[in-house]
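As a next step, the fold was encoded as tokens, giving this record:
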Amino acid sequence: MPSLLPSLNALRAFDATAQTLSMTAAAEQLHVTHGAVSRQIRQLEEQLGLRLFERAGRGVRLTPAGVRLANTTQQVFSQLEQTCDQLRREAEGAPFVLSCSGSFLARWFIPRLDQLKQDCPGLELHLTAADEDQPIRTGVDAALRFASPPWPAGSRVIELAPERIGPVLRPDLLSDADQVTPEVLLRLPLLETLSRPQAWPQWCRQQGLNPAALKIAQSFEHLNYMLEAALVGLGVAIAPAYLVEEDLRTGRLIAPWGFIETDALLSLWLPDTGQDPRARQLAEWLTRKLNQ
């Protein structure tokens, strides 16, 4: 029985043109001539029996049928690229590449790398910093993220531990006369990070405080900067418990009001095509350490 699929070259030509909306740009991307791209698309349209593009000025635009096909080719070619990259790196003995936020990397993961090597001697890990809202790029095997379910359709997510947040500050910001009640925060300078503006309101509502009564003294682009500001005594930071464990243990910071669970989870996000068994090994180790 003959294959119903068009040729791979025709689909590649279509996909490149659909992304650029220019046969000239698609030809440059694929390192072929404009005529070759035009011919492949014409053959594809003849095989499918409908138009995929129509003229739009100097370029082209997708027809409704073209939009449907482009959604599929973009996803399929992306998955093929990820799978081939993963197989190539596995064959070369490449390390497992994990991305996470710079703050989590510096404050939680790096201090535990020696323990990871002892517990999982066969797992060679390469850590890289990336913003949590970035898509998983090619060459990355998994990403650690704080996020709230439900997860996007098609996502492969391994849930590890709940997020717990709370106010932390230097001990000398509280006087002996202070009553350690949430209301004390109404007169203290508060610090926040722009990536989590919801943190203070979440905590306040659970404590029966009006979030509007709190005054933010300083906002920071990154959570790490906010914690450094708290360590030098600039105010009270609102932070995930995982990131201040060492500071609390050494007494550099205190958390007199404790921590609350949010609706977010720390999770391991995998590419759609990820089947690497090292991901499960890493997830099991992270779950143990995060829930100790």
About this structure: The mean pLDDT is 87. The domain at 95-292 is CATH 3.40.190.290 (D-Maltodextrin-Binding Protein; domain 2). The first strand starts at residue 53 and ends at 56. Residues 64-91 form the longest helix (28 residues).
